[in-house]
Amino acid sequence: MRIVPASLLRALSASVLALGVTASASVAQEGSGTVSFMVFGDPAELAAYQSLVAAFEEREPAIDVELIHVPSASDYRARLGVDFAAGDPADVVLINYRRYAPFAAMGVLEPLAPYLRQSDVISESDFFDIATDSFKWRGQLMCIPQNISSLVVYYNRDLFDAAGLPHPADDWTWDEFLAAARALTQDLDGDGRADQYGVGIEPSIFRLAPFVWAAGGELVVLESGLRPIRLALDSRAAREAVEWFVALQTEHGVVPDALNEAAESSESRFLNGRTAMFFNSRRGTPTARAIDGFEWDVAALPVGRERAGILHSDAYCMSALTEEKDAAWTFIEYANSPAGQAIVAESGRTVPSLIEVASSPAFLDPAAAPANSAVWLETVDSLRTVPILRAWVDIEELTADELERAFYGQASVDEVIAAMITRTAPFFAGEEG
Amino acid sequence: MSRFSLSWRAGLWAMLLPYLVGTLLLIGLPALISGVLAFTTYDALTPPVFVGFANFRLLAADPIVTTAISNSLVFIVLAVPLRILGALALAMLLFRPRRGAGGYRAAAYLPTVIPDVAFALIWLWIFNPLFGPVNVALGALGLPQPGWLADAETARYPFVIMSVFQIGEGFVVLLAALRGLPRAYFDAGAVDGAGRWALFRYLTLPLMLPWLALLTFRDIILSFQWTFTPSFVMTGGDPYYATMFIPLVIYEEAFDRFRFGTGSALMLVTFLLSVALIAAIYLLFRRRGYVADV
Predict the structure, then answer these.
(1) What does pTM read for this prediction?
(2) CATH number where B236 lies
(3) pLDDT tens readout for residues A317-353
(4) Chain B residues in contact with chain A using a Cβ-Cβ cutoff of 8 Å
(5) Burial per residue of A266-297, b for 16 or more beta-carbon CB atoms within 10 angstroms, e otherwise
(6) CB atoms within 10 A of CB A191
(7) Secondary structure class of A217 (helix, strand, coil)
(8) What residues make up the domain containing B171?
(9) What is the ipTM of this complex?
């Protein structure tokens, strides 16, 4: 293979070639200028980031922060990629730990470990380990995590009470979960179709993963150097988890089938009081706080052979291209200081990644729903992460396509497990580790 | 005279220039770059690397790509004839002056000016398998209620149906064409005792054939691209790639996964497919001897 000599292509990519060179961090404590900061989320989340920016600008008058808001998470991801490709990304961006690897591998993110080491405000030991570890690319901290959220069960307290069911206990089991789901799935008008479902959960590997781990299985097979080499869903334990997960729809009918899900999403059904339990991360809290028709709370994931949860975490990343590195770091540092994280945590959006803020009233405010916010902290030790791979996005998308077929009864569990392993194999092969 | 001609031609060029420059810069140049990128791996962040025909081999081996090509071709085969015939039928129905004709013509054109995303969202509701008006009406009539977009067997049909409502431009072209047909031919046909069907079959249709051919060529090109917004907004290619069309794959390859090489290669394949289809239609019409005069 050789580099294309065409000057046309060089002209096209001239602006982005510079990105190939990772700038060495010249760390300073303060800066000035304008920093662009791109976020996604609903109006409640936007308000939180606006408050954060306002507080920062008051504290650092020499730095202006230009907030760029993209409402939809998927549009945000597309925008992020296109902005980096165009060589004009925002100076500071929020990226999920499942998605930063391609950017880190291409050298377009400024490693933040040197900045953090020299900070007088925050240090790595202030954060939950799993949050910082998930943003280490080849051993180096690339971004500063803002949260340590995880998957939990949002549940409608009123529907549990109406069905005479006890609210989920911290250590409830898969069997207890399923029994509740069956009792809460009801045909209210007697037309032979369920009008109220017990559970809403999307058939994706990201939702399935904690059940695989709780069954004693693994998501991926690791070679001796700990490099993931393929999906491990064909192990006995993982297969059991997949079968149990799929049976929620195909056998027990406690989750809407494809038609009903297409007609109205499970999230909408939950918010409208017609699905009793909905799996989501802390991200669902600002929206759920707007519910006024019923009481709701959150519970830990049901326990299988062992307790397992899955990390949901976004981080503040700095573009390697930015000319305002010092100012950008000053903003990132403030956003992840106790004062900055408290502002965003109060919106309900985040489970703070700073241990100090997570255990403060900013997050555990007894007056703010959900009452059981502590569940996110109590289960931190059981959290695991998906592998940090450049092609993880591809793997998630392909496995979702296959898993959906089994979940909606269009293919057998064994068939889709085999398809998931075969179809994702090229993406593992392309990873350098 | 020559000075007048020169200034006339200069005036024409002046009017054409903005579009010419725009076409070269916004279509010609990107198409050229895309044509070159098709033979490289390129993530827009690191320099492109020449890989010969490797991208085309990757595309041929990717079942999602072959499914998308098949879906796009099926869509074209179903939608293009329906759209052309629909436009012709509407034009035939509405070209004669009558009371309220202007309103009907505006109504026929209206769906074409609705923004694509809004149009897709409206149809997403119309084909909602439980609450949408189509299935509610079918249920009220005691007829089977398909899953439409939620069922792989039926998911492509809503795309065809909704595309048939955006035929305003073809309708206007055919309306103008119908008005331009020489009345004398029809008067002579009527004197010879031809009925309405005979007039349509032996006069209107042959005379309109060049216009219909032109619209068919245009519609084939348009239809390769038209599926992007509805598939992006309504289904994302689901269920299980039943609504995965070529433009969505190109978008996902290039802008979601930063594989501009394979995205460009698929664009080149689409271009060649369009050319092949148009050539086939051209030969078909040409044998009938009508296209030569277009």
Answers:
(1) 0.87
(2) 1.10.3720.10
(3) 999 999 999 999 999 999 999 999 999 999 898 999 9
(4) 32-33, 36-37, 40, 42-51, 128-131, 147, 149-152, 238-241, 255-258
(5) bbebbbeebbbbbbbbbbbbbbbeebeeeebb
(6) 8
(7) coil
(8) 56-287
(9) 0.81
